[in-house]
Amino acid sequence: MRDTAPPPARAAILLPWDRQAAHAGGHNRTAEARLAEAVGLAASIGLVVVYEKTFPLRAIAPATLFGKGQVEAAGAALRQAGVDVAVVDATLTPVQQRNLERAWDTKVIDRTGLILDIFGERARTREGALQVELAHLEYQRSRLVRSWTHLERQRGGFGFLGGPGETQIETDRRLIGERIVRLKAELEDVRRTRGLHRGARRRVPYPVVALVGYTNAGKSTLFNALTGAAVTAENQLFATLDPTMRGLVLPSGREIILSDTVGFISDLPTELVAAFRATLEEVAEADLLLHVRDISHPDTEAQARDVRAVLDRMAQEGTLDEDWPRRTLDVLNKADLAGGVAQVVQGEGVAVSALTGEGLPRLLAAIDSRLAAFREVCDLELPVTDGAGIAWVYNHGEVLGREDDERHVRLRVRLSPEDRARFAAR
Ligand SMILES: Nc1nc2c(ncn2[C@@H]2O[C@H](COP(=O)(O)OP(=O)(O)O)[C@@H](O)[C@H]2O)c(=O)[nH]1
Ligand SMILES: [Mg+2]
To answer: Is any ligand 1 atom within 6 A of the Cβ of residue 221?
Structure first.
């Protein structure tokens, strides 16, 4: 029998755009940037975007959000494009969602629903998974509340009259409420023991370099480009990494793990902020953060501030070390759209184009020297019989001197604090 994977879902992205509201909210983000971001978000969970369009809103129709003509026009376009799911890049009430599903005869999800799916797929730590589940339940509960008041209003506004619909909703609310209480207790437990596991949590004995930055900044493109530009580490251990991590060999011969992370999202719904930070937990494990920036984006400065603010907040909460700025390297990506690497004012950062490959050798060298800079010189003594240990030191450190006698090898070596701890634990 043939292995037939289901075809990827075909998605449409519809952006209702209220220019006045966008302006009043202090967002100078353009509809095009917002639409491009939503397309990137959908693509990141494997949806194939076959239709994308901005719909200027004149007034908000309570039942469908979009105007009547827009609902009809979109419906025809969705049928023609043959979509499996329509993503409305806004917050929909349950009633709007249901009405649109009926009008378009397709599954409809809103922005929060899409982001929750992404977080759910990317949560790697126990805390991350719990936090995302909690956000999901709170989202569901808030929607039950809203449809409940809606039903109540239809019946004339007296909830105490009871009725089958209401009973079911109250049961659902109670079950969700109980699950939320249990999840919160479990989260507390995980948080309490987190400090204890710090350090022991690391499963891989190589420096980890994590890519952080906005959605569409080019993290995944850079991840693939760096993997192409450097030698891929062929090692049993690297073979077991999940697809968002890869082993690389830097020019110095140093082996690292490169890790792609979930992207920052503009105007993240507040109820998702905690879940987002939890999915970024792996960043705390990283030896070096590459802050990937799209320097061709009109909001590039605001985006960079957002990213740093979230990392600062994580440091305040104790998830991330205070010295994260010292362990961060800015990657000024999409230099090709700014006239090439030579045209970019680089300051502390390194300009690259993940698309053309320009600047990548310099970036690899910069990663190498940043990792080396964290290292300190120390003296180690190993039995001559410990061939694996000696090889490990050569692989992880920069050996500055060596003295052998009959029984011992004494190495003077530059090692990172993490590697020194790992060596001591051996
Ligand atoms: N022109 C240009 N486009 C790029 C570059 N890097 C990424 N892109 C494009 O930007 C979009 C988002 O890239 P992606 O890697 O998915 O971003 P991510 O969301 O940060 O992972 C894609 O269409 C890429 O082809 C670059 O250096 N130059
Ligand atoms: Mg990506």
So the answer is: yes
For residues 241 and 112, membership in a common domain is answered with: no
CB distance 334 to ligand 1 below 6 Å = yes
pLDDT digits (tens, 9 = 90+) for 211-227: 999 999 999 999 999 98
Per residue in 153-206, pLDDT tens? Answer: 444 434 444 445 556 777 888 889 999 999 999 988 887 776 555 444 444 567
Ligand nearest to the CA of 40: 1
Please compute the mean of the pLDDT values over residues 370-376 and round it to a whole number. Answer: 77
- Same-domain check for residues 230 and 367: yes
Is 263 near ligand 1, meaning CB less than 6 Å away?
A: yes
Tokens of 60: 């908000």
Ligand 2 center to residue 263 CA distance, Å?
7
What pLDDT, on the 0 to 100 scale, is given for residue 167? 66
Q: Which amino acid is at 334?
A: K
Mean pLDDT, to the nearest integer, of 120-143? 86
My answer on whether 212 and 359 are in the same domain is yes
Give residue 287's domain range: 208-373
**Same domain as 192, residue 244:** no
The residues placing their C-beta within 5 Å of ligand 2, an ion, are: 219-220
